[in-house]
Amino acid sequence: MSNVIILGAQWGDEGKGKIVDLFCGHFDIVARYQGGHNAGHTVQIGDKKFVLKLIPSGILHPGKRAVIGNGLVVDPAALLSEMESLTAMGVNVAEQLSISNRAHVLFPFHRTMERMLDAIGTTSRGIGPCYEDKAGRRGIRMAGLLDREHFAAQFDALAAEKDAVARAFGVAEDLNLGQIRAEYEAFAERIRPMVCDTARLLNEAIRDGKRVMFEGAQATMLDLDHGTYPFVTSSSASAGGACTGTGVPPTSIDAIIGVAKAYTTRVGGGPFPTEALDVMGDEIRRRGNEFGSVTGRPRRCGWFDIPLARYSAMLNGIDSLVVTKLDVLDELEKIPVCVTYRSGRHEITEMPATTRGFEAVEPVFECLPGWRTPTLGVSRYEDLPVEAREYVAYLESRAGVEIACISTGPERNQTIVRPGTRFAKLFS
Ligand code: IMP
Question: If you measure from the C-alpha of residue 30 to the centroid of ligand 1, how many angstroms do you get, rounded to a whole number?
Fold first, then answer.
């Protein structure tokens, strides 16, 4: 086993942070490849709870290199504040972190732009407008921020454009451009020691036999191309993004692990066919503590969606699926699973490409018996109640992908790995 991508197979918040943290010991480097501080990975170690937004969860393992790849957009203020709180908790961030000189820099005016134009319920972090500048070929990269001679002119050109847009939209607030420039010049000096060509760092490490874990943020259905556009994030959250977002070629990737909840959640607007808008949805939210780790927003909750899981497995080439939060379903008498969609008089198994088409589908559910027995903390597959094993086996056969790892609680040891599976072999 060498280089593995771990990514979300649904709409995010699948519990990737715990899984990355759990298997991190098998890798030398953990690299993030997209997104920014819109992500929120929670890792519980003993009585300490770490919420990571920009920095890969691998940083929590002493001696591991954590890489922020070129595919990310980095708000230096958010990065430095995260670094400070991790350092205060005893993590050696300055020593372990490398930041790509090609990652794009996020400025406060990106948030202003987002406030003016957000139509989908974003995390309001300015992520989309920063990626817009990247695609528009006017963004500033880390290398540009560190360029003492030319940064001011690059910043002034970008800032003047934002000022003009804000005025055109009648935004009265002062963008404080002079002050921002000075702040960013100061940030640059604090970040400088960690910035390098991370594509070279990663490729040379792989050449030398080191193992890399690529840590996805957000998830497949929030991918800019393959997700439920336009209700998506602005980056490539699916497996392909790991290559473009780090500069590591596809030939260097050995396996892809998807992470999915035993049910489904999403935050923000957009189609969600299996959403439970009744008391059951509230119950899952309560039991699963389904509130955003970045924004605190209540997550929309619903049932496991097989067509979505199959599509996600296909897009990413998922070798093995990790199912998390099984214990959240412990008290249910019956558990609906969406096996197909109905569109008008037809049954369809594909996800429609338009919002209107997707919102019009009705989920076709099969109800499986619940187990009504606590599974919190179960760590051996054979110790799960028979109905819980049947539920997992059903998802596995319908989704067409191995389910070899099941999470039954937030702690590291509250995890089942099924022996003899491809997944178990990967991490043996
Ligand atoms: P943005 O990433 O802030 O542009 O938000 C775009 C969409 O992605 C919104 O629906 C957000 O709620 C969603 N989103 C972004 N990051 C996450 C995440 O980490 N978990 C779940 N949803 C997310």
Answer: 22
CA distances from 309 to 166, 274, 275, 314 (A): 41, 12, 15, 9
For ligand 1, atom 9: residue with the closest CA: 122
Residue 324 Cβ inside 6 Å of ligand 1? The answer reads: no
pTM of the shown model = 0.96
**Phi, psi for 248 (deg, rounded to 5):** -100, 130
d(CA 341, CA 349): 6
Ligand 1 atom at shortest distance from the alpha carbon of 36: 2
Q: Which residue has the tokens 């961030």?
A: 93
As a whole number of angstroms, the distance between CA 356 and CA 365 comes to: 21
**CA of 122, closest atom in ligand 1:** 5
**β-pair partners for 66:** 30, 97
- Which residue is closest in CA terms to ligand 1's atom 23? 218
Q: State the pLDDT at residue 84.
A: 95
Going by C-alpha positions, the residue among 56, 80, 59 that lies closest to residue 6 is 56
Per-residue tokens: 298: 């209540």
From the CA of 234, give the closest atom in ligand 1: 4
Rounded Cα distance, 400 and 56, in Å: 30
Residue nearest to atom 10 of ligand 1 (CA): 268
Mean pLDDT in consecutive groups of 10 residues from the start of the chain, 428 residues: 92 93 93 95 80 91 96 98 94 96 97 90 95 98 97 95 91 83 97 98 97 97 98 98 98 97 96 96 95 87 98 98 97 97 91 94 97 97 98 97 95 93 88
Least Cα distance to 52 among 26, 9, 91 occurs for 91
Cα(80)–Cα(411) distance, rounded to whole angstroms?
A: 27
CB 73 within 8 A of CB 130: yes
- In the residue annotation, 41 being an active-site residue is answered as yes
CA 152 to centroid of chain Cα atoms: 33
> Residue 238 has what pLDDT?
98
User: Strand pairing partners for 105?
Assistant: 74
pLDDT for res 41: 81
CA of 267 to the centre of ligand 1 (A): 7
Catalytic residue among 37, 41, 104, 226: 41
In angstroms, what is the span from residue 39 Cα to ligand 1's centroid? 7
